[in-house]
Design a protein that fits this description.
Blueprint: H1 3-18, H2 23-34, H3 37-50, H4 55-61, E1 95-97, E2 100-102, H5 113-146, H6 148-162
Antiparallel strand pairs: 1-2
Helix pairs in contact: 1-2, 2-3, 5-6
C-alpha cells in the first residue's frame, strides 16, 4: 500500500462525507477510487458501518492510525452545554533560519508538550474570556472604522493570516535564542 493510495483514500473520504454522503457509501466509493488494498478495506468498513459497527474500531483492528473523541453532551435542552478537548502535536523545532533550527515560542522556558497541555488546561477559562474580550473590542473598532461588512472581512483576514503561522523564539540582539 503506497502513501499515495492512503492519501487518496482519506482525501476522497473527507470530500464525500463533507458533502453529506452516508459514511457507508463514502467508504465504499473512496476505496474504489484509491484502489489497491483500500478497495477491499473500504468495502469491508462500509459493510461494517452499514451494519452498525464503529468505524474507529474497525480501522484500529486493521492497523490504521485513528484519532477519535466522543463527548457526552446530555439531552438536548434550552440550556447551552460546552466541552473542550486539548489536542496538540509536539513541535520540537518550528523553523530553520539560516541553517539553525529554532524552537517554537512555547518551548522558550524548556517546556515539553506535557507542560504545554497542563498550562492550557489551567489557563483555559481565563484565556477564553480574554480572547472574547479582545474579539469584542477589535470588532467594535472595525465596525466603527468601516461598518459591519468591513469588520467581517477584517476578522476573516486576521484568522487567515494568523492561523497557519508558527511562532519561534527570538533572543536578545537579534539572535535566535537556542537552549
Amino acid at each position: 500500500m503506497s502513501w499515495r493510495q492512503t492519501a487518496g483514500f482519506y482525501r476522497q473520504l473527507a470530500v464525500m462525507t463533507r458533502t453529506g454522503m452516508p459514511i457507508g457509501n463514502a467508504l465504499r466509493l473512496a476505496g474504489e477510487t484509491a484502489g489497491g488494498s483500500y478497495r477491499a478495506r473500504g468495502l469491508q468498513w462500509s459493510v461494517g458501518c452499514t451494519g452498525g459497527a464503529n468505524l474507529a474500531s474497525q480501522m484500529t483492528a486493521a492497523g490504521e492510525p485513528v484519532l477519535a473523541c466522543a463527548l457526552p453532551f446530555g439531552p438536548v435542552s434550552a440550556s447551552p452545554v460546552s466541552r473542550h478537548v486539548l489536542l496538540a502535536y509536539d513541535d520540537v523545532f518550528s523553523i530553520e533560519y539560516f541553517y539553525r533550527k529554532v524552537r517554537p515560542y512555547w518551548r522558550r522556558d524548556g517546556w515539553g508538550i506535557t507542560e504545554l497541555l497542563q498550562a492550557a488546561e489551567v489557563e483555559y477559562t481565563d484565556l477564553t474570556a480574554r480572547c472574547a474580550a479582545f474579539d469584542a473590542e477589535i470588532t467594535a473598532d472595525l465596525r466603527q472604522a468601516g461598518g459591519e461588512k468591513f469588520a467581517a472581512l477584517c476578522a476573516l483576514a486576521f484568522r487567515q493570516c494568523i492561523a497557519p503561522r508558527s511562532f519561534a523564539e527570538w533572543g536578545w540582539q537579534g539572535h535566535w535564542r537556542q537552549r
